Amino acid sequence: MTQQKTNRIAVFVDAENVTNWIKHDGVRLLMEELNQLGQIIIRRAYGVWSKPNLAMHQAAINQAGFELIHCYHPVTGKNTADIQMTVDVIECAWQLPNISCFVLVTGDSDFTPVFRRLREMDKDVIGVGQHSTLSECVKTSCTRFIYTDDVIKTLASNDVLPETLLAPQPLPNSQATLTLAKADELVIAHLKASTTPINASQIKTFLKQHAADFDEKHYGFKTFTDYLNANDAIEVSKSGTVNFASLAKPIQPTKKTDVVASAEGYKALLKKHNALPDHADILKTIYKHAVALKDVCPDPAQFRTTLFGLCHKTDSNISKTTVNKAFAYFMVMGLVHTEKAKGGLDAVRVKKMTLKDFLLKSDKLVIAKLLELGKTQAIDLKAKEIKKLTLSTISKDSIKKLIGE
């Protein structure tokens, strides 16, 4: 793989202005996201660390690799942390030109000039803060803006929920502007246009340019890398701590001779478009566990993690990737929904139906995909051959009616 230039990142946190975000594990979650973008060189958190509301979080922030900068407030009511942080950010930008990306976590509007100055210095800037006048002012000066209040907006109570539920995910029933199929189409086209692997973070930025609300969590993926890995047409590789994506194999325009009127020809075409479920027996096993899962999982990512634990216990050959693909397939089938659990929490559920109906629904989805592909390329559909791909007891005559043979 061609050697790629790795982003070097500096992170500055005005801790006194984001205590609620820190309380809800915001620091760890931000670090997980930034580690996918490049190498984090500087990590500093500013505040009066002797204050009880900050002191209780010192250990966790320190374990995340942060240098804790203690800022004395000689005058009551005055916050000197933001001043110290501003000085350090600008000083770092001037003295360390190899730092290409600055991440500023704050809720203070006084930082607006800092964001602008960094952009003038040709730095990538990621702002992290709550929905406010600040966020609206600086968004145009940022490469990206992450909202801290997304961490807690789905929680019914900040004090009584177990730690495992405190994850900054959007509501499971949030609707994305981009469909999963459209997002896949854009990514494939973007990768096809490049002669070298592309930084995963750049691909996500590209998708956000098409739909500002793009978030892989809308489709049930915990991270953007999980989303990329679920697509068989994409190959993900690592250079240091940074993920790069490229096409797994060249995608050539389909010719009439490419799609033979046979089960194998249809199968190859469906797999190319990630529209054929892998391993029918394993898919049925995963579905049985999914409908039986009664744990309160407020977001798809946690549901998938719990589902993998159940499936892996039954069959150690079932991998996380297989479970992720199956869950994504359930979403395409329209089986994933949310319902209210005890305590008013949203709980992700997979619709229960008889195995017979589930397999029939899956077969009809596959046939519908073949018909859709037939609108843009030459495919000679034969019910006899399609029948060989089906999982249910659907008859050949029923298939003929569906395809108009």
From TrEMBL:
User: Per the database record, which ranges form the HTH OST-type domain?
Assistant: 179-250
Q: Which InterPro entries match?
A: LOTUS-like, NYN, OST-HTH/LOTUS_dom
Alphabetical list of Pfam families matching this protein: NYN, OST-HTH
Instruction: Output the PROSITE patterns linked to this UniProt entry.
Output: HTH_OST
Q: Where is the signal peptide?
A: none
Q: What is this protein called?
A: NYN domain-containing protein
* Species for this entry: Methylomonas fluvii
Higher taxonomy = Bacteria, Pseudomonadati, Pseudomonadota, Gammaproteobacteria, Methylococcales
